[in-house]
Structures are given as structure tokens and as C-alpha cells.
């Protein structure tokens, strides 16, 4: 098992960073749960290095350098924690580098033109997380299982993009492809002025439909997982998908209001998933 203090540090980081993930993954057996905490914490550091560099202990370049020389890395609880998880599960480093390459895109590209660009971004920053976690949760994941994990990550990233439209706009970012906006007659002028009209709702629904396709693929092999791992993935997907329902209840006001799934609502979803 991971050292108690290291495990606690990673647990706190996950609990503070993502209520949905924390509530979903806490039902795993201890070793798997701690491994997920470690992976989440490293991804959080990568994300913070880009979005909140003034508060981050490392730059993205420093994180990559330390990860490349993981055996020698020190100075933060994440390095011994990562050594433990990589060695315990004999993990491939490739998805972690992919994650960093996706976050690096935020330096170079603030607005997206095509659906293909958006899908590539979603794969890098979130599909990669699916690749990281599947070997923790599944005893013998084949390529189809790995691809379903990637799809689940991409679905969740679409939800993130919808939920965070207002916050991202303040940072000068627009992840919604111009290609989709033009399809429904929603202009860049409308976007800059935070217009919520029928074309905007159609744009968001288009993204929701894509996310739902990826959610379906993401859960296609759920029956092949151990029971607790399967419950965890279903919970994570359900909690995230519920954010969309809150967006709809808020009448698609995503510029000024962040959709939040309350703990009470999560508990109801948990009961629905486990009542049988």
C-alpha cells in the first residue's frame, strides 16, 4: 500500500479538486482507490500549471522533466506517490505525456475551428486519463476496454467544456468549434456578448449529443470490470452526466452560472444505481 501520509495528501488534493470524482472513486478497494488519488493529483498539478501558474508549485516543463526522471524526482509528495503507482501496476508513461501535450495546447490555441480539433484536445486532456485509470480498475484490459475508457474521458471533457464556458471565456478561450456554431447560426458576436438564444441552445445540445455517444461507448464493457470498479465508473459517468441536467435546469445559462451537482443529488443518484 501507499505510505499513509502520501495517500492522505493525494486524497485531500482529489477531494478539494473534484467532488464528483472523489465521491465516485471512494468505493474502490484501498489500493485501487489510492492509485486513483495519485493519478488524479498528478493530473491536477498538470492542469494547475497551465490554468493557475502563479499558485502552482511547478511549471508544466518542470513537471515533465521530473516525470521523465521519476526515479530521482523529489521535493513534493507526488513523486514518491507516482513511483509507487507506476511500479505497482507496471504502467506505461505514454498517457501521461499525452496529458501534458494536451494541456500545452492551451498556450497555443485559445479558440477552436473544427470538431476534429476539439476531439483531439478531448483525447489528449481527458481520454488520456481514461488510459491511465483503466489498468488500475480492470485486471486484464484489452484494446476495446482501453478505447472505452478513452471515450468515457472524452465524454467527461465535453461536460467540462459546457460547464466551464463562462470561466473559460474570461480566460479568452472558446473550446466550442466555430464549425458547430456556424451550423446553427450562432455567431462569434453572439458568443462575445454571451447571447443565449435558440441557436446557442442547439449548439450546446449538439455537444451534449456527442458526449452521450461517448458515454455509451465508455460504459460498453462495464460488465467485464470487478464489481466495485464497475460501480465506480458508473457513478463517475452518472455524476458527470447529471451536470448536463443542471445546465438544462439553468436554461443553458453557462456564461454567468456554473452548474453544480449537490451532494444531496449525488446521494440520490447513488441510491438509484445501487437499489437493485
TrEMBL record:
Molecular function GO terms recorded: geranylgeranyl diphosphate synthase activity; squalene synthase [NAD(P)H] activity
GO biological process: carotenoid biosynthetic process
Pathway terms, separated by semicolons: Carotenoid biosynthesis
Keywords of this entry: Carotenoid biosynthesis, Transferase
Pfam families: SQS_PSY (PF00494)
Stretches that traverse the bilayer: none
Entries under SUPFAM superfamilies matching the protein: Terpenoid synthases
Matches recorded under PROSITE patterns: SQUALEN_PHYTOEN_SYN_2 (PS01045)
PANTHER family to which the protein is assigned, alphabetical: BIFUNCTIONAL LYCOPENE CYCLASE/PHYTOENE SYNTHASE (PTHR31480)
Stated name of the protein: Phytoene synthase
Amino acid at each position: 500500500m501507499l505510505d499513509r501520509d502520501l495517500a492522505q495528501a493525494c486524497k485531500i488534493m482529489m477531494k478539494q479538486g473534484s467532488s464528483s470524482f472523489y465521491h465516485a472513486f471512494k468505493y474502490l478497494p484501498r489500493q485501487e482507490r489510492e492509485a486513483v488519488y495519485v493519478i488524479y493529483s498528478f493530473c491536477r498539478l498538470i492542469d494547475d500549471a497551465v490554468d493557475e501558474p502563479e499558485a502552482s508549485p511547478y511549471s508544466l516543463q518542470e513537471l515533465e522533466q521530473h516525470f521523465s526522471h521519476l526515479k530521482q524526482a523529489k521535493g513534493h509528495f507526488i513523486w514518491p506517490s507516482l513511483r509507487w503507482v507506476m511500479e505497482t501496476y507496471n504502467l506505461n508513461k505514454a498517457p501521461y505525456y499525452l496529458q501534458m501535450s494536451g494541456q500545452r495546447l492551451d498556450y497555443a490555441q485559445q479558440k477552436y475551428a473544427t470538431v476534429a480539433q476539439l476531439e483531439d484536445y478531448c483525447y489528449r486532456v481527458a481520454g488520456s486519463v481514461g488510459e491511465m485509470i483503466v489498468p488500475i480498475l480492470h485486471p486484464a484490459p484489452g484494446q476495446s476496454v482501453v478505447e472505452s475508457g478513452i471515450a468515457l474521458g472524452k465524454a467527461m471533457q465535453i461536460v467540462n467544456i459546457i460547464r466551464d464556458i463562462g470561466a473559460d471565456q474570461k480566460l479568452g478561450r472558446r473550446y466550442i468549434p466555430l464549425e458547430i456554431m456556424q451550423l446553427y447560426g450562432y455567431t462569434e458576436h453572439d458568443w462575445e456578448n454571451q447571447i443565449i438564444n435558440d441557436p446557442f441552445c442547439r449548439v450546446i445540445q449538439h455537444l451534449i449529443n456527442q458526449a452521450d455517444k461517448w458515454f455509451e461507448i465508455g460504459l460498453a464493457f462495464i460488465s467485464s470490470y470487478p464489481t466495485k470498479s464497475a460501480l465506480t465508473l458508473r457513478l463517475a459517468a452518472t455524476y458527470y452526466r447529471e451536470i448536463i441536467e443542471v445546465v438544462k435546469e439553468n436554461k443553458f445559462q453557462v456564461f454567468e452560472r456554473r452548474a453544480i451537482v449537490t451532494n444531496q443529488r449525488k446521494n440520490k443518484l447513488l441510491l438509484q444505481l445501487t437499489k437493485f
